[in-house]
Design goal:
Helix content is 38%, strand content 0%. It is mostly helical. It has a domain of 58 residues. Helix 2 packs across helix 4. The longest helix has 12 residues.
């Protein structure tokens, strides 16, 4: 039985991207990190942000949940729900 490779033995993303096999691939530009919409700069919330917060509250996600999720940003279920609610319908 073969043991799993140690993480230090694996190729890095940079090494994979720079390999001959993938040298002709044009990769898309990285997206900007998604911010939860918790304002730190003292500006008032926009109408869309207030509506999204109201919907979160209806779903049981209080202002305290939003504040706690701020540290996790996009890796939070609250942030994911915020993003879904904040995205306009097509």
């Amino acid at each position: 039985m073969r043991s799993a490779a140690r993480p230090s033995d694996r190729y890095s993303i940079r090494e994979i991207r720079d390999s001959d096999w993938l040298s002709e691939i044009a990769y898309p530009r990285a997206l900007e990190p998604y911010m939860l919409g918790v304002v730190d700069d003292g500006r008032p919330l926009t109408d869309a942000e207030r509506e999204t917060r109201r919907q979160l509250d209806e779903l049981g996600m209080s202002a305290q949940h939003v504040e706690a999720a701020r540290a996790h940003q996009s890796r939070s279920s609250v942030a994911g729900t915020y993003h879904i609610l904040d995205t306009p319908s097509p």
